[in-house]
């Protein structure tokens, strides 16, 4: 009599951690693989904003912070932009859009 070996456990993909309400194309695999919640990613973006872009005017920082609070995708985008000049251009555009 032949007994089959027990099935090997399957490791879940990063997509198994994504809430169904969020499209998987909206955020990178790295964000989910890190296992960070939306609140943790937003907090990380706020902390980095205060260190990496601390030379911005306080009024502009407040606008950016408000955007991160309301839109975690904006915080994720901020965290993903590694080039300083590009990140600054993106922040400037964000502030202009919010002030309209």
Tell me about this structure.
The protein is elongated, with a radius of gyration of 19 Å. It has one domain (29-99). The longest helix is centred in the C-terminal third of the chain and has 16 residues, at 84-99. The protein has helices at residues 29-33, 38-52, 58-70, 72-80, 84-99. The chain has 100 residues and is mostly helical.
Structural class: mainly alpha
| Helix-strand string | HHHHH
Number of strands: 0
Mean pLDDT across all amino acids: 81
The major β-sheet equals: none
Give the tags.
5 helices; mainly alpha; 100 residues; 58% helix
SSE topology:
Elements: H1 29-33, H2 38-52, H3 58-70, H4 72-80, H5 84-99
Brief write-up:
By secondary structure, this protein is mostly helical. It contains five helices and no strands. It has one domain (about 30-100).
């Amino acid at each position: 009599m032949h007994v089959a070996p027990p099935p090997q456990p399957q490791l879940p993909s990063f997509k198994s951690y994504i809430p169904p309400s969020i499209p998987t194309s909206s955020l990178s695999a790295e964000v989910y693989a890190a296992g960070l919640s939306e609140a943790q990613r937003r907090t990380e973006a706020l902390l980095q904003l205060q260190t990496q872009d601390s030379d911005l005017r306080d009024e502009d920082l407040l606008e950016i912070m408000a955007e991160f609070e309301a839109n975690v995708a904006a915080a994720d985008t901020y965290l993903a932009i590694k080039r300083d000049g590009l990140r600054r251009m993106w922040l400037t555009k964000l502030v202009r859009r919010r002030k309209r």
